[in-house]
Amino acid sequence: MHLITKNKMKIKYIGYITIFFLTILSLSNVNSNALKIDKKVYAGSKDAKVTVKVFSSLTCPYCADFHKNVFIKLKKEFIDSNYVRFEHHSFPLDLAALNAEKILRCVTDHKKRIALLDEIYEKQEEWASGNDINNINSKLSKIAKKYDLNDDRIKNCLINENLENEILEIRINGSKKYSIQSTPTIFINEKKYDGKHDYNLFKKEIEKQL
Questions:
Q1: What predicted TM-score, i.e. pTM, was given to this entire model?
Q2: pLDDT tens digits for 45-54?
Q3: Could you confirm whether domain 2-209 is CATH 3.40.30.10?
């Protein structure tokens, strides 16, 4: 688990917490119409019997571990056949994760959005390293260009305040409703999963709900 209170990510920005909370205070002034754009990251049918919610930060190595070791197999066996719906809920713990979430949500096609999420986690160690956010953004941009994004669109997404507010609102609401203390925090039909990131163990929990 990636504890919020013990976040040891390589990228730390003085003043980010201040900016974060100033953004929270500004949420009430955001045009409500701007929040109606579908920026969800999901796979599988909304009518699926089982819904898996994963609250994660894209720079969290434990989140990448769950995605690579559990989600990929879950998608092939249960999600693609519409037995399970997967929902990625953003819970960025640093600026790099926040920017990655912005770029992720700029992909309009949901299947390509999930494919980009796969690659972001697969190449996490490559793009999330370093102490220069511009360099990190550049690495993210190279990955994102495979998913119908160009330099102008990526740049516009990174400076889009409404999009940033949407992402932070997901984090705030998740914290309020689910009392998130670490990432990833995983729920199967609203019941918290505390088991290991082992596919066979996770699969058993899924099958109990089917």
A1: 0.82
A2: 999 999 999 9
A3: yes
